[in-house]
Design brief:
This protein is of the alpha+beta class. The protein is built from 25 helices and 16 strands. The protein has a 5-stranded antiparallel beta sheet. A 4-stranded antiparallel beta sheet has the order 13-15-16-14.
């Protein structure tokens, strides 16, 4: 068995490209090797800023041979009346590279046909790899691609070299300006190369020993963490590792070297969040804290080389960070002299979105909407909720957020605490933008949750009123994220609220606007959009599609109740009575839908019109079961209500078997439909059974 190594060398790629490049190369080469029938033991892709490397171990040097039976024309067409081959048979044999004497007959369901055994495969791995490598490499998707020189080939950055070795043999192919070979390059400083690799088995040692490269991202990450922890320990501190930043930093280096540097203690007067943002966002560095959780006047950065004069490099990093921290301290001191009233005045000059007015107007809407929400969900905190809504965007005009925009909301929380606002208002301001995505944290406080919902509802209703509805992948105002945030908050906080009522109130607070859609139409569109996002959310949680559609079909206005109904359906679907009960009730639903336009089926049935034993039995059963279903609905015990379907099924089936529902007599037909309607309306509020396929 052989080893194949492919190295794609380029100018430095952004670190955000590397993880997706690894996954895509792995998936595409795995599929390609399977398709061409090359057997192998393992395949691994590793990346650094300047290279992507694929190593395939235990690769069969020869393509797997396969024998297949290829059918041709029917025997009656392949031979004439005298038994001689026809042109159809001769053409079939010629196409498959054999003589007419080589064919044999096979019996199929359609009759007797001629066939031939065809051997495929057996090509050399080198030949096959030379054909698939350029195709796969050229197909790797990147966020941005570029062309260079006079070449039409596009890649994330200009290619510089390609190494392709099958054991000691070069797999030769050309991609753009580069032809594959056996040369590799190491670190620009600690082993630039080029280095000739004689055998694929020597590649990793060549890169690490001569090129000064740590190829494996996992090992680079581990090296950074272990070295950083050791240096922090000497200062009686610990590194504030941030996974997303750590992934980025390891993707910026091939030869990681950790360095702990210092900054003046005077900067510690600036809030911790600001200092860490300065370090992490602008310097790609990590903060340090002591055992009590206090920030230390040190930071850890990661170099991509081992410098000759570490002290000189350390002073350079300190000088750059000092400039950032000096700005932060200036803005902090300036902002602490301002008042919220001053900032609120300035918000009236800040545009929200197009015709939706200013940020000042938005905060006044949020003040009213938060008050309304709190009255329904947290009546003891109405005033605090309204205050949080009014102050929610004040920090946008602060100097600090103007410099560090990722701190919006966070700085509002800090300033509120420092300027005498209540603890609940302060925390709500810090949580107003949560959740920021499908996996981001949720607010922890009730006021934070209400403010977040109000903010998102205001944005959604305003944009839908202007017909700014997301299409395809385009969603410049993050409306999908807003809807998902409301869904996650409602479920996490178990909020009993009609979401259509929430959107209607948010729409009302806009007052008179030059809307592009009539308010009723905009609200309908928004509810359809919200239902689609709720469906997407449940699907992402692993729920069955049919069950999700059935639960949503009964209404999406109460998200908490919709989730409870879905879970009840899931539990019911695992019972033995599920399929039969659903089939029976779908029959009820279908009959009612067909007759809804031609018959008035509302109201209670007339006992005097009951003739058949089966309909009398059904009526008696309904008199007992319907009040029970209403009681279960009142306490949201949907699972127990669905189990009543199993109890009702035999009675309903007997009714259908023994009674002609759609009889000619108007009063009898209507009376029977009324019974079905009374039963049906109890269950259609639980699920749309028409969506369930048996």
């Amino acid at each position: 068995m052989a080893t194949f190594v492919l190295e794609i060398g380029s100018e430095e790629l952004p670190s955000r490209f590397l993880a997706s490049e690894e996954k895509d190369l792995t998936d595409r080469f795995t599929a390609a090797l399977h398709d061409i029938g090359l057997e192998y033991g393992s395949l691994k892709v590793m990346t650094t800023p300047r290279r992507a490397v694929m190593i395939v171990d235990n690769l069969n040097p020869v393509q797997k041979r396969r024998e297949e039976v290829v059918s041709g024309p029917p025997v009656r067409v392949a031979y004439d009346a005298k038994g001689n081959p026809t042109k159809a048979l001769e053409g079939f044999a010629r196409t498959n590279g054999c003589a007419t004497e080589d064919v044999f007959h096979v019996q199929t369901e359609k009759g007797e046909y001629v066939a031939v055994r065809k051997i495929t495969g057996g090509a050399s791995a080198a030949t096959l790899l030379a054909s698939i490598c350029p195709t796969v490499i050229a197909a790797v998707p990147f966020g941005k691609r570029m062309r260079w020189g006079a070449y039409s080939f596009a890649y994330a950055r200009p290619l510089r070299w390609i190494l392709a070795l099958l054991d000691d043999t070069v797999v030769s192919f050309t991609l753009g300006p580069v032809t594959s070979g056996r040369e590799t390059y190491g670190h620009r400083i600690h082993g630039p190369g080029p280095f000739v690799v004689k055998h694929a088995a020597d590649f990793l040692n060549t890169l690490s020993e001569q090129g000064g490269i740590i190829l494996d991202p996992v090992l680079r990450r581990r090296s950074i963490v272990e070295s950083g922890n050791a240096q922090a320990k000497r200062l009686d501190g610990r590194v504030l590792w941030k996974d997303s930043l750590l992934d980025e930093v390891q993707g910026l280096t091939e030869h990681p070297v950790s360095l702990v540097a210092d900054f003046d203690r005077g900067y510690l007067e600036v809030p911790r969040e600001v200092l860490l943002t300065s370090m992490e966002t602008h310097q790609k560095s990590f903060g340090l804290e002591d055992s009590d959780g206090r920030l230390l006047p040190h930071f850890l950065t990661v170099l991509n080389l081992t410098p000759e004069n570490m002290d000189l490099v350390k002073r350079g990093w300190e000088r750059v960070l000092r400039a950032r921290l000096e700005d932060a301290r200036f803005f902090w001191r300036a902002d602490m002299k301002e008042t919220f009233d001053h900032w609120l005045e300035k918000l009236d000059a800040v545009i929200f979105i197009g015709d939706l007015g200013s940020m000042g107007e938005k905060t006044r809407r949020l003040e009213s909407l938060c008050r309304w929400l709190a009255a329904l969900c947290a009546p003891d905190h109405v005033d605090a909720a309204a205050r949080a809504g009014r102050l929610s965007k004040a920090d946008l005009v602060s100097g600090m957020v103007g410099e560090f925009d990722t701190l919006q909301g966070i700085m509002g929380s800090i300033y509120a605490a420092r300027k005498g606002e209540s603890d609940s208002v302060s925390k709500a301001l810090g949580e107003q933008y949560l959740p920021a995505g499908p996996d981001s944290p949720l607010p922890k406080t009730t006021l934070g949750a209400l403010l977040s919902m109000a903010d998102k509802a205001d944005t959604l209703t305003g944009c839908f009123g202007l017909d700014m509805i997301p299409t395809g992948a385009a969603d410049p105002n993050g409306l999908r994220r807003c809807a998902l945030g409301i869904i996650r908050i409602m479920l996490d906080f178990a909020i009993e609220l009609d979401v259509r009522q929430l959107f209607a109130k948010a729409q009302e607070l806009y007052g008179s606007r030059p809307w592009k859609l009539p308010p009723a139409k905009a609200l309908d569109n928004l509810m359809q959009f919200f239902a689609a996002r709720l469906r997407n959310y449940f699907m992402s949680q692993g729920y069955d599609t049919l069950l999700v559609d059935a639960a949503l079909g009964a209404g999406v206005e109460n998200v908490k109740d919709c989730s409870a109904r879905l879970n009840a359906l899931v539990a019911f679907s695992h019972t033995s009575e599920y399929e039969a009960a659903v089939r029976t009730f779908k029959r009820v639903t279908n009959i009612l839908r067909k007759q809804a336009q031609s018959d008035d089926v509302t109201g209670h049935w007339d006992i005097a019109l009951l003739k058949e034993d089966a309909e009398k039995h059904l009526a008696d059963t309904l008199e007992i079961v319907l009040p029970k279903l209403d009681s279960l609905w009142a306490v949201h015990d949907h699972q127990a209500a669905l189990h009543c379907l199993g109890e009702l099924r035999p009675v309903v089936d007997a009714f259908f078997d023994g009674v002609m529902v759609m009889c000619k007599e108007d009063d009898l037909r209507r009376n029977r439909l009324c019974m079905l309607h009374e039963l049906g309306m109890r269950f259609t509020r639980l699920a749309d059974f028409a969506a369930l396929q048996m």
